[in-house]
Amino acid sequence: MTVAVIADSAASLPPHVAERWGIGVVPLQVVVDGAARAEGVEIGAAEVVGHLRDGVDVSTSQPTPAAFDEAIATAVAAGASSIVLLAMSGALSGTCDAACAAGRRAAVPVEVVDTRTVAMASGFAAIAAARAAAGGAGTAEVASVARAVAAGTRCVFTVESVDHLRRGGRVGPAVAAVGRVLGIRPVLEVRDGEVVLASRVRGLARARAALHAAVDDAVAGCAEPAVAVMGVGARDQAASVAAEVEARLPAVAPVTVAEVSAVLAVHVGPGTLAAVVADLSAR
Predict the structure, then answer these.
(1) What angle is formed at CA 139 by the lines to CA 135 and CA 144, rounded to 5 degrees?
(2) 230 with 258: CB under 8 angstroms?
(3) What is the pLDDT of residues 92-139, one digit of tens each?
């Protein structure tokens, strides 16, 4: 049995990381002025940031059926006899349902994992799954590893404005209300598939401090921690936070620095900073 691992593009895996682990990526779609573009193929996060700042109408959509079918066919052509397909939280997107439909069309068994999270929290689950597959694990074990790592991953982020999340219907009224208070930045977290308010702080410096505290707390409970710092139009800030984490916690180096995927960028907006901690040993 050869098990292939596929993730959707919301996992925000840097291309070289996906290539290293042989993880297939199914692109979600960014819709700009009514025209759908495959993220990572036809549009990237930097372009989305530019559109958002220019006031262009931008929305998102799940992957096309053809995109799923192509990713599965590519894996089969490369020798896969089964596939584990990781999808972003089903509470935030219809991508997981679309993945299940694609699995039913496939020529080989496909097990879909709703990671109940997003960004590199899903990405680390995909890496752990690919590592298990490379070690000879069967389909059920690879999927179990993906679920366990995803469930134990912490994803915390702060946004300049909750307007993008509110417009996309990704947060409840309690979170939306925080954004109306002048000078207050919400610190948000993905819990059980949904975006919730973790804390309220005043200013970017305290928001960054909250991310650091979350990283420290999560790393303390990990046997094999992996850390990523991500941004939306905030690469320098993300790199700075990552360097601070490495200086304070050298055992977790190197910290992955990555852009939040284009689709997620639409919903969180420019200036977003995120920290993700996973335990790759989770079973």
Answers:
(1) 85
(2) yes
(3) 999 999 999 999 999 999 999 999 999 999 999 999 999 999 999 999
SS3 state at 147 = helix
pLDDT at 167: 74
Q: How many helices (H) and strands (E) does the chain have?
A: 11, 13
**CATH code of the domain made up of 3-151:** 3.40.50.10170
Domain boundaries, the chain: 3-151, 154-279
The candidate with the shortest Cα–Cα distance to 120, out of 18, 248, 5, 224, is 18
pTM (whole model) above 0.90: yes
**Fold of the 154-279 domain:** Hypothetical Protein Tm841; Chain: A;domain 3 (3.30.1180)
- The owner of tokens 């200036």 is 271
Place of tokens 């990704």: 170
Residues with Cβ within 8 Å of 89's Cβ and at least 6 positions away in sequence, in order, are 96, 114, 115, 116, 117, 118, 190, 193, 194
**Digit-coded pLDDT (tens) for 147-203:** 999 999 999 999 987 777 877 666 666 666 765 666 678 899 999 999 988 988 888
Give the SS3 label for residue 62. Answer: coil
pLDDT of res. 163: 79
